Amino acid sequence: MSMGVNLRKVGGFRKVGSLRTVRGLRKVARLTRRSPRVDLSHPARSPLGSSVVKCVTYRKGVRQSTARDDDLVEAVTRVRKDDDGFVWLGLHEPTEAEFGDVAELFDLHPLAVEDAVHAHQRPKVERYGQSLFAVFKTVCYVEHAELTATSEVVDTGEIMVFVGRDFVITVRHGRHGSLGPLREQLESTPEQLAQGPAAVLHAIADQVVDDYLAVTEAVQNDIDEVESEVFSPTGGRTADPGRIYQLKRELLELKRAAVPLGRPLQVLATQPMRVIAPEIQAYFRDVDDHLKRVADQIAAFDELLNSILQAHLAQVTVAQNEDMRKITAWAAIVAVPTMVCGVYGMNFDHMPELRWQYGYALVMGVIATACCALYRGFRRNGWL
């Protein structure tokens, strides 16, 4: 769809669809009142619980002061009329009804809209006409006082980004990964925002990968803790293998978020795109380098956890073998008096030393001597 058609659509949406917009906003407000869950992870989040987190216009990297930041139609009309700047619209878990007018206004592809609403997508980058659609998996380290076999270590979410010549739409899923601090950071460096929507896309990708690095460092502390426990003097008996398996599961969650992002970042860094200037692509290559570091750390952690688990199983096997040797040694010692007493317990009249005055003392002496000899032999061989 051409830019002129889009502008006509914006004008019609403004004039004819204003009543529908008001009704839609009222419907959103009613739905919000029924749902008490509101993300207040950052002050930019609307206290009303609407899916619209922020709608801001930028010109030459400077935020434009308006009477109403969330008047999307007015902002888009002004930007396209002046052919200068771009609009950054932030959404949080929008419904199909809430996102429908936005998709119509910006002429977003239905497949991308469906992915943005329903989430649970792999990291990817797709081109639809003159716009770009990117999916990032966000991660957050879940603090815990003690790692157990059921502890949640890594929590994941998603950020979908629509990028056009004059707009950026971010759709966030999950209760972490707020883009409010990132928006404030970018606004403090107007020269970066002046490069357009591609600069926002790069900043989001950079923040997502930086979060990967932070989570891997936190997970390493948990791995070090488990490793110290396993290789402690009593690790073979007291270490919980469930903690190791739990760390491997959570590491797999991190791997599913980080590793598939490698190919999309390579596409953003190497393939020519209309909405990304060549000078911005160099910054995506830097983000890709950081992601490769994360992938290497995840692979190393996985190998280390496998080694820790195998070492723990080997320690358990050794401990069991030691227990079996001790049981066998004591059974051999007990077998001596059992055998002697069994022999003299038989009902025969003619047995050696049966009626001798010192027969009992002799038998007990023989039993004690044999048991002591066996005990010293087992101790010398490390069985006891």
TrEMBL record:
The keyword Ion transport applies. It is found in: Cell membrane; Membrane. Its main location: membrane. One of its GO terms (cellular component) is plasma membrane. The keyword Nucleotide-binding does not apply. Keywords: Cell membrane, Ion transport, Magnesium, Membrane, Transmembrane, Transmembrane helix, Transport. InterPro entries: CorA_cytoplasmic_dom, CorA_TM1_TM2, Mg/Co-transport_prot_CorA, MgTranspt_CorA/ZnTranspt_ZntB. GO terms for molecular function: cobalt ion binding; cobalt ion transmembrane transporter activity; magnesium ion binding; magnesium ion transmembrane transporter activity. It is a multi-pass membrane protein. The chain crosses the membrane at residues 327-346, 358-378. It comes from the Bacteria. It catalyses: Mg(2+)(in) = Mg(2+)(out). Mediates influx of magnesium ions. Alternates between open and closed states. Activated by low cytoplasmic Mg(2+) levels. Inactive when cytoplasmic Mg(2+) levels are high. Belongs to the CorA metal ion transporter (MIT) (TC 1.A.35) family. This is Magnesium transport protein CorA. The lineage of its organism: Bacteria, Bacillati, Actinomycetota, Actinomycetes, Kitasatosporales.
